[in-house]
Fold Ferredoxin-like protein.
Amino acid sequence: MGNFLKTTENPLDFVEIKIDGASHISIKEPRLCRERCENKPCTYYCPTRVFYWDGDTQDIQVIYARCVECGACPYGCPHGNIDWHFPAGGYGVLYRHG
Ligand code: SF4
Ligand code: SF4
């Protein structure tokens, strides 16, 4: 959450998310993250820090409940290693109108 300190605002304070029981995001091949992705850009470009590197398990962890559906992760991963789709109908970000 360190990068949010620039403004002291957390983007998740401004959206309401209805959390699905099943993740809409997964890592296709965890070994690829460990062995071939030195800088792990997913841990930087996601605006709400859905991805983080767990040094204990040596895996990328995915906190899908934080996703604001910006759609960047399938393009931002240099190895095409993230499977992302919109949450099931009725779940995810609840947009306000009016
Ligand atoms: S950017 Fe892609 S390959 Fe690299 S750590 Fe993240 S998910 Fe794994
Ligand atoms: S779609 Fe956007 S907010 Fe959701 S996990 Fe991917 S980069 Fe993060």
Notes: The beta strands are 16-18, 25-27, 51-54, 59-62, 82-84, 92-94. The longest helix spans residues 30-36.
